[in-house]
Write a structure and sequence with these properties.
Blueprint lengths: L9 H7 L3 H11 L11 E3 L18 E5 L4 E7 L6 H14 L14 E7 L11 E6 L9 E10 L11 H11 L13 H9 L7 H38 L3 H21 L4 H8 L3 H10 L4
Parallel strand pairs: 3-4, 4-6
Antiparallel strand pairs: 1-2, 2-3, 5-6
Helix pairs in contact: 6-7, 7-8
Length: 297
């Protein structure tokens, strides 16, 4: 049994960042803030349910805080590749920005929103660094005039787990590697990162916390099962369309087209090539060709 549990699990992610000092250190280092701009204090903001836009399923922020200057930060942990994720983070930022307006408020009182997304996989092409910053620029001058909504993406899939040169590296190493480790790495220098390791040790969870951890993992497994059911359903539809034509050739074309469609969909979601091959019965070579056509990395 592993000593450390999965820090990207929804329950443990929120447990790690339930400590204001850890959140503060994480933000100051990820954002590489100079001393004069470092965040001094953090206040947690209740995470409200957002509008139902996905067949009735509510969406929640993972973590929302504001600093001593009033700037707001949304910190999200995204474990799976999803085609709509970039849309979702923009929705989060817009919702949080608009929610600042109360009766009698003025637009000038609106404060910046920064969404920080930790991604367990990769999202952008290989020329985009592990930590990337996204903001609005004027295209002719490449200057920034609109400062209120911006984004930081942290792609753990691009992080070199052997690299521990900075406190930022130590935080990313925790999220990428802790579950596989039997001992606290000796080259961890940050007390807050050490505390986070202590927080996710199995014997340090209460029975209620461990139950919540397991339920979160079961929820992830349910998503995996749903994905497999989508494979099966898609293949069945392809077979049905082919048979309706009454020709073996038509059946084969319909089924093959559906297999390709499902393969493309799941590639865009970041699924593993071998897993896609297993359920679509396409060859690994065929799926790699589709991946190249979609320009995915």
């Amino acid at each position: 049994m592993n000593r450390y549990l999965d820090p990207t699990n929804d329950t443990l992610f929120k447990k790690i960042f339930g400590d204001a000092e850890r959140v503060k250190e994480f933000l100051n280092n990820i954002l590489n803030l100079p001393d004069e701009y470092k965040i001094r204090d953090i206040e947690f903001i209740p995470t409200e349910a957002l509008a139902n836009i996905n067949k009735g399923r509510k969406s929640f922020f993972d973590l929302k805080v504001k600093d001593n200057s009033g700037n707001r930060y949304i910190i999200e942990m995204q474990k799976k590749g999803e085609t709509d994720y970039l849309k979702r983070v923009q929705y989060y930022s817009a919702h949080s920005y608009v929610q600042q307006i109360k009766a009698g408020s003025k637009h000038i009182e609106l404060l910046p929103i920064l969404v920080i997304s930790l991604l367990k996989t990769k999202m952008f092409p290989s020329d985009v660094p592990c930590i990337s910053f996204h903001k609005t620029l004027e295209t002719s001058t490449n200057k920034q005039y609109m400062f209120d909504i911006s984004y930081v993406f942290i792609e753990l899939g691009k992080f070199d787990k052997e690299q521990l040169a900075t406190v930022t590296d130590e935080w990313l190493h925790l999220f990428k590697c802790a579950e596989e480790e039997k001992e606290l790495p000796g080259n961890i220098t940050s007390d807050k990162v050490r505390d986070a390791y202590h927080t996710i040790e199995m014997h340090n969870l209460t029975p209620e916390e461990y139950d919540a951890y397991v339920r979160a993992k079961l929820s992830e497994d349910a998503e995996e099962i749903a994905m497999k059911e989508q494979f099966a359903e898609g293949l069945a539809k392809g077979e049905a369309r082919g048979k309706a034509k009454g020709l073996a050739e038509g059946e084969a074309r319909g089924e093959a087209k559906e297999r390709v469609k499902i393969a493309k969909l799941t590639l865009a979601k970041g699924r593993d090539i071998k897993e896609i091959a297993e359920f679509t019965e396409l060859s690994v070579k065929e799926i790699k060709t589709l991946k190249a056509e979609l320009k995915l990395h």
